[in-house]
Specification:
With 426 residues, the protein is α/β, with parallel strands linked by helices. It is 34% helix and 22% strand. One of its GO terms (molecular function) is UDP-N-acetylmuramoyl-tripeptide-D-alanyl-D-alanine ligase activity.
Length: 426
């Protein structure tokens, strides 16, 4: 590890992809189910890598560094770097809203501190170490997102990152298949709080979430926020014209995020900002100016068409919450385009039927459903359903969406963003 850390310090950063490697990078030849990363070591060196870390001796040369396991070495290097710098780390996980909340926290804290934050959703056993290796000597706070779809994964990520602070956005019906049901989700996500139970660590909890309150009632180190005035940070959450809004004392903070569920995310960022003594006017500026992107509740206008693109991911909890918010939006005509929700487990048909029943109850007529799971539900005749996203293209191309509000949501694998060019005024 001493020698590997020296190579890292002398490098311009770490790379695991020869397509984006920069001159002087330390390349880790990670392997997957269908590829051997060691085969790309020579290519990485040709592209300018300073060294290539490999775990197969047949690819060794004077510019390679042989280890037993490349992934484990990457993780160990990240932990070594994190411990040497001892930068305060805030980690967050949860079923919904992780990435948005991470970005809000990062934006708030950046008004006072030099920070780094997880890029995009690099929140797994590879992404977390890569994020930690972005730490610099002058980094004052790191905001690290942690994702998981099985029990034990958050605990493993905590052993890599050793966070000082933690927050769980919520416990919802996400990755039910891997976690083994909602109780498995709660147990798996709570591994973050279990890691932080010692008195020198801190956890942030949403006082308005009974499950979080119940799980942490014996924790001596919790910091609460919520509408209850006895919370450490009293923050009232509401909406204004269906956009998330929070109130701290007499200060009203209006966001550009749709829905009450995003008010919770904004409240978490505000509470963490207050804890770290970011002035309230900077918290307000950060939250009110944040614009969602990357297909997360992203609102765009195309002529007379307004599109709410929320197709980065989906699960039963987030889908129902979003549909409830959309149902309250004022619009002469609405079009709903939904894709299958993946990793739901044995209850997949029941969960997809609940979504269909909700759409029926909300009396939508322009509904387009993509995916083999939606296809197997009991659908009204007026709903259009296809097995693959691309099958919707010729259907949508013939329609006039003038003056429409269009809501799009589905799991990442459905790639619903490919439909955007076909939502036009005729």
């Amino acid at each position: 590890m001493t020698r590997l850390y020296q190579l890292f310090q002398a490098s311009t950063g770490v790379s695991t992809d020869t397509r984006s490697i920069q001159k002087g990078n330390l390349f880790f030849a990670l392997s997957g189910t269908n590829f051997n990363g060691n085969q790309f070591a020579a290519k990485a060196l040709e592209a300018g890598a300073s060294y290539a870390v490999i775990d197969d001796p047949q690819y060794a040369n004077e510019k390679t560094f042989l280890v037993e396991n490349c992934l484990q070495s990457l993780q160990a290097l990240a932990t070594e770097h994190r411990k040497k710098l001892n930068t305060p780390i805030i980690s967050l996980t949860g079923s919904n809203g992780k990435t948005t909340t991470k970005e809000l926290i990062a934006k708030v804290l950046s008004y006072k501190y030099k920070i780094i934050a997880t890029q995009g959703n690099l929140n797994n056993h590879i992404g977390v170490p890569l994020s930690l290796l972005q730490l610099k000597a002058d980094t004052q706070i790191a905001v690290i997102e942690m994702g998981a779809n099985h029990q034990g994964e958050i605990a493993q990520l905590c052993k890599i990152a050793y966070p000082d602070y933690g927050y769980i956005t919520n416990f919802g019906k996400a990755h039910l298949e891997g976690f083994g049901g909602i109780e498995g989700v709660i147990k798996g996500k709570s591994e973050l709080y279990q890691h932080l139970i010692s008195k020198d660590k801190k956890i942030f909890i949403n006082q308005d979430d009974p499950k979080q309150v119940e799980l942490t009632q014996d924790y001596p180190n919790r910091i609460s926020f919520g509408s209850d005035p006895t919370s450490d940070y009293a923050i009232h959450k509401t909406t204004n014209n269906n956009f998330a809004q929070i109130k701290i004392g007499d200060e009203v903070i209006q966001t550009q995020l749709l829905g009450l569920y995003n008010a919770q995310n904004a409240a978490a960022a505000a509470a963490i900002g207050q804890y770290f003594e970011v002035p309230l006017h900077h918290i307000k500026e950060a939250l009110s100016s944040y614009q969602p992107s990357n297909n997360r509740s992203q609102i765009t206008n195309h002529g007379s068409i307004k599109i709410i693109m929320d197709a980065y991911n989906a699960n039963p909890t987030s889908m129902l919450a979003a549909l409830e918010e959309v149902s309250q939006l004022k619009a002469d005509q609405k079009t709903i385009i939904l894709g299958d929700m993946f990793e739901v487990g044995p209850t997949w048909k029941e969960e997809h039927q609940t979504i269909v029943d909700t759409l029926k109850k909300q009396a939508y007529t322009n509904v387009f459903l993509c995916g083999k799971q939606f296809m197997q539900t009991d659908l009204p005749e007026q709903f259009c359903a296809v097995a693959e996203t691309k099958e919707l293209i010729p259907v949508l191309s013939k329609k006039d969406f003038s003056e429409q509000l269009i809501f799009i949501k589905g799991s990442r694998g459905m790639a619903l963003e490919q439909l955007l060019p076909y939502l036009k005024e005729q």
